[in-house]
Every structure is written in C-alpha cells, then in structure tokens.
Design brief:
By secondary structure, this protein is an alpha+beta fold. It contains 8 helices and 40 strands. The chain folds into 5 domains: about 80 residues, Sandwich (Immunoglobulin-like); about 110 residues, Sandwich (Immunoglobulin-like); about 70 residues, SH3 type barrels (Roll), CATH 2.30.30; about 100 residues, Immunoglobulin-like (Sandwich); about 180 residues, Zn-dependent exopeptidases (Aminopeptidase), CATH 3.40.630. The chain starts with a helix and ends with a helix. The relative contact order is 0.10. The N terminus is likely disordered.
C-alpha cells in the first residue's frame, strides 16, 4: 500500500512540475470567430427554417432556427429551453414525434412581454403495415413505369410485404414469377450516410419483409417505342389502349393480399438501335453540349459525352437510358438526350490511327484519328492523362512526339479489350489542366502547361477566378443574412488580399444579380484562369444535428485539385478554429472544370448563430479570406518547389 501511495505522489509531483496546459481551446462550434455583439430591442419571434408546413423526410430529430429580436429574451420549444445568442439568434435541435403533422410550440419572453407561436412541419406519408394479416407496400414496388430491355437481360423485381408470406408476380396471361424473402437492414437516408458525424447507433435486426425475383424474356403490356426519331426522341410513344396490369400476390396462411404492379415491359428488337447524343434537342444553343453519364440511373456524374457521340441502346427505364459503350462498359444517360438514327445504321466502331503530338506555347496538342465519334473517358492520375476509347480497335502505327518538350515524357497505347483502347500521356509534371474536343473525326486532347511559379512569391501573376456562390438559391441565417450576401463579402475581402500579393483576382459577380452555374464555369474558362475558387457557406440537410456536424470543409472533383483542397482546408481550420470536416470529392458544377484546378470552400455554417454573426463582421470575413489566401499560397509554393527540383 505504501509503495502505491509513493508512486501516486511521484506522478502528482511530476504533473505539477510541468508547465500548465492551456486552459481553453477553441470550441468546435465557435472557434476563433469574433464574439457575437449584443442586440437589445423589441421581442420579435421568427422561424427562418424550416418553413411552416414544410414536408421533411426526417427520422427522430431535426433542427429549427430563427431569431427573437433581442439577446435579452428567453425561448422554449415545446417547453424545453433553447439558448438565445446575444444578438437574438437561436438554433434548436428538437425531437420529432411519429405523427404525420408535427407541432412545435415556441414561447419567447423578454421582461413583461411574451410571444407564443405554433409552428408545424409535415412528414411524408409512409405505409404503415396492419397489425395482422397479409399486406403489401405498393410504394415499394421496383421497378415501375415503362421499361425496354433486351430479351436476354434480367429485370430485378423487389417489393416489401409481410414477413413469412408466399409472394408472386402474376403476369397478365396468368404465368407466375416467384419472389423470395431477403434480409435487409433498416435503410439509412443518403444524407445521413454522407454528412452525419455522430456516433453510430445500434442497428436493428435485419428484417425479412423484402422480396426479390427476376423477370427475363417476358413482355408486359405495351410501353410504346423506346426512342423516336427526330424532335420526338425524348418521349416514348404511348400505347393506343391500356393493357391489363401485372399483379403482386401475397399469401399468408389462408389470407391473400393483392396489388397492381404498374409496369409495362417491351423486349428490344435484336437489330441494334443506334443513337446519337445531343443535350440541346430543342435547339436553344444554351447548353454545354455535354451529356452526363452515370453508372446507375440516378448516380453521380462519371462520364461526359460530347454532342455527336454514338452508341447503342441497351435498356430504357422511364426517363433514363442505358447505353452500351463497348463490351466492357455501359452508362446511364437522360433519355431526352437521345436521337435515334435510321434503322440499319452500323454499330459504332472506330479504329485508332497514328497519333501526333504538337507543342504550343501554353499547351500540348495530342491528336487521335478515329473517324467515328465513339464514347470516351479521360482518367487523370498524378502525372498521367489516360484516354479510354470505347468501341475502338488500335492501329497507331506511329506515335510522333515531335521535338523534345519539357512537359512531355511519352505517349503510349494498349488494347485493353477487343473493343477498348487506352492512350496514356505521360507528363514530367503533375497535371494542371486539359481540354478534349472533337475536330471532325479526330479527338483532340489539349494538355495545359503548368504556370512557372516563384516559391518566394507564389501568388504573383496568378490569374485566380473568385466565384461568390449564389444567387439564385442559397442558405439563410437565423437573423436573415443570405448566403449570397455572405459569400460576396468574403470574396471581396479575398480579392483585396490576393491583389496585395501580386495576384490577378477576377470575380464572377459583384452584385446580387443571379448567375447560372454554367455561366460561372464558362467565365473561368474564357479568361484562362490559373485557379478557380468558389466561396460558399454551408447548411445541413434536415434531420442532421448541427451541433456535431457543423464545421469547415473544402470540396474538389478533379484529382489534380485534391492537393489544393487539402491546403486550403488546413489553412481555413487554422484561421477559423472550427471543427475540421476535412476536404472531400464533391459532384459540384463549380469544381468539375478540366482546364484548371478548382475548389469550393464551405468555411462556416450560416445556420449556426456564431457563424452567421461572424459573416456579418469584418473580422470574421477577413479570417475566412485569410484562410483561403494562405491555402492558395501554400499550394502554389509547394508546386514551385517541385518545379525547382
């Protein structure tokens, strides 16, 4: 016992001998932001979000925020006290009962004055199974609507019904397709999976009320034609008369439940349907001449097909079409972008001829003769750019590199599959940017030369487009500050700081006039920007706790922009002192440009009272702008040091 006491005494003495640790650390919610100024005024209770009677797809809790007009007030929501900031702003995290209409009673008091307000929100109608007997959730039927598939393609069926039942799809001609029970966990909303940082809760046991089956080589009803020709390509031709529907049948003991399955399926002709892509079928001239391709019908952007790209139709599901790019790849696109070519049009096939590289002052031009506008994808990885050419065979007898060039190491190719070719451009420096376009039957890849940088003054001479995000749309803070206004305030301060460093900042907007996303991207491209920075302030999806999920984050899309995003993220966290949400790839329009590194910053959360107040304060806007400037400087200095090696 004495020995233990002696050891304990020694540990205490050692601890007392160390220099005292800092007693305060920045709060993850307020960081190093300027203090919220006190506002003393009349009592005015408002709820900024969510709007009254908004329909919210949320689970057990959500947030409300607004203002009471004065920091001297108190506030309760359904009897529970809610902190009020010195300027009267408030943010509440409240439980959501299981009712379809949720009622919140807000009561604010200041001195002898009291204001009471009832605020309601709604939850979407959900199927509630009966306590006993067979049932089927008609909203869970997948797929539904109109489908066009090849006879050999399998269509996966899924429905939710009572556990322990015998479930079948009954076709209009009486044939039956069995569906088997599959265990599945409780579904978690996509927004929660992407943005929720709270500790995971226990997952309930897997339910076996989901039934799945397969339909192959069976037509149901008449969905019309998959793609019309000419101006009507977007709309399938409807059948002249309705067909009897298929039915899902659920048998539990001696009882049966049935529901119509709203599904029409047609089998595609064995003769391939060749289509051409055009995102401007209406001829407005206002599109970007690109059709987005996805790995799933509603998935993230993965391919970008220029107008004129040809492929064959493999499947159509309502407004989405699956294209066969090659034997190795399919892509889902908007059916509205398809134009059917005349019957008998050959399946697209290209042969890659000899490749030539021509240097220019600001870029390398790599020409790939193909003859046919086949689908392609550009893959970027550090110091390489790879062009994956679908429906293509390779025959580049010559690869002419031209005179030695400090940026180019070599161009290589390989036949990855019988109808897929990969051409790789190997560079001496990391990719800075590129463009790809068709020129007749040739595909032209333009590789941008990186700017020559000075590690001592890396920002000097750099043309940086600054985009103040929004309007239209955008978030609003508890006291009414709009995100468009807040973003512009930070951007103007950032412009001043960058100009002092010798940079050439150019703004996409200086006023409150709305500006489209594509207009902002096109502007950055048109001025040959070295970098693109879009300044934003964040908001959370309904149902996520802002007290644990708010902070600072930076988004990128192209791989070359990841180091820039990481540098700016680290600098913003140092300056603002808020929770580090990390940098992340995001499928956002302002970070998808290919000609320059591009990032989108989300420095603060406008819904948090301390963050909104900081964005109203010159010191808060300056701290945000300084963080971005520091990160830009560090990224460019690192690239300058790499160039000097």
């Amino acid at each position: 016992m004495r020995r233990r006491v002696a050891v304990a005494s020694l540990l205490v003495a050692s601890a007392c001998g160390r220099p005292p640790a800092p007693t305060t650390a920045p709060s993850p919610l307020t960081g190093r932001l300027p203090a919220i100024p006190a506002v003393v005024g009349s009592l005015r209770l408002s709820v900024v979000h969510p709007p009254r009677d908004a329909v919210l797809d949320i689970r057990d809790s959500t947030f409300l925020f607004g203002s009471v007009g004065t920091g001297a007030a108190t506030l309760t929501v359904n009897g529970q006290p809610v902190p009020v900031a010195p300027n009267g702003a408030w943010l509440a995290w409240v439980p959501v009962p299981g009712d379809s209409v949720v009622r919140y009673v807000l009561e604010a008091s200041a001195g002898a004055d009291t204001v009471r307000q009832v605020h309601t929100i709604r939850r979407p109608a959900r199927f509630m199974p009966p306590a006993s007997g067979p049932w089927v959730d008609e909203g869970s039927l997948v797929p539904r609507g109109r489908l066009w598939v090849a006879a050999e393609e399998a269509v996966s069926l899924s429905v939710r019904a009572v556990e322990g039942a015998t479930v079948q799809l009954v076709l209009p001609d009486g044939r039956r397709v069995p569906l088997v029970a599959e265990g599945h966990p409780v579904e978690v909303p996509a927004a929660v999976l992407a943005f929720d940082r709270s500790e995971p809760v226990a997952v309930p046991r897997a339910r076996r009320d989901r039934y799945a089956g397969t339909l192959r080589g069976v037509a149901i009803g008449d969905p019309g034609v998959p793609v019309a020709r000419g101006d009507d390509a977007a709309a399938p031709v409807a059948p002249s008369a309705p067909s009897p529907p298929a039915t899902v049948e659920v048998v539990l003991g001696a009882d049966t439940a049935r529901a119509p399955w709203p599904l029409a399926v047609a089998l595609l002709d064995s003769l391939p349907i060749v289509v051409e892509l055009d995102d401007d079928g209406a001829g407005t001239g206002t599109t970007d001449s690109l059709t987005v391709g996805r790995a799933t019908p509603a998935g993230t952007y993965h391919w970008f097909f220029p107008t004129g790209t040809r492929a064959t139709l493999a499947e159509r599901r309502n407004d989405a079409a699956r294209l066969r790019l090659s034997s190795q790849a399919d892509a889902w696109v908007a059916a509205a972008d398809l134009r059917r070519l005349p019957a008998g049009t050959p399946v697209p096939r290209a042969v890659l001829g000899s490749i030539t590289v021509r240097p220019a002052a600001d870029r390398l031009r790599v020409r790939l003769p193909l003859g046919t506008r086949v689908p392609y994808q550009v893959l970027e990885d550090g110091r390489t750019l790879a062009l994956v050419l679908e429906s293509t065979a390779g025959d580049p007898n010559w690869i002419r590199h031209g005179p030695p060039d400090p940026l180019l190491e070599q161009v290589t190719w390989r036949q990855e599959a019988r109808d897929r070719v990969r051409v790789t451009v190997h560079l001496a420096e990391p990719v800075w940017g590129y463009r790809v376009r068709w020129q007749g039957g040739d595909l032209l890849l333009e590789v941008r030369r990186p700017p020559r940088l000075d590690a001592r003054r890396p920002l000097r001479g750099r043309r940086i487009v600054l985009d103040a995000g929004h309007p239209p749309a955008g978030a609003t803070g508890p006291t009414g500050l709009t995100e468009a206004e807040a973003n512009l305030g930070v951007t103007l301060e950032l412009e001043r700081l960058l100009r002092a460093e010798g940079a050439e900042p150019i703004l996409t907007r200086r006023d409150a006039a709305p500006l489209g996303l594509q207009e902002r991207v096109d502007f950055a491209d048109s001025v040959d920007a070295d970098l693109l920075v879009s300044v934003h302030n964040n908001a959370l999806p309904d149902g996520l706790d802002p007290f644990v999920n708010s902070g600072t984050s930076v988004f990128f899309f192209q791989p070359r922009s990841a180091p820039l995003a990481a540098a700016v993220q680290a600098a913003l966290v140092r300056r603002l002192g808020l929770r580090d949400l990390g940098f992340a790839r995001g499928d956002l329009a302002l970070v998808r440009p290919t000609w320059m590194p591009a990032i989108l910053t989300e420095g603060l959360f406008l819904m948090v009272p301390a963050h909104e107040s900081a964005l109203r304060h010159p010191d808060g806007r300056r701290a945000y702008a300084e963080g971005v400037r520091d990160g830009l400087r560090e990224f460019l200095a690192a690239r300058a040091r790499a160039q000097a090696r």
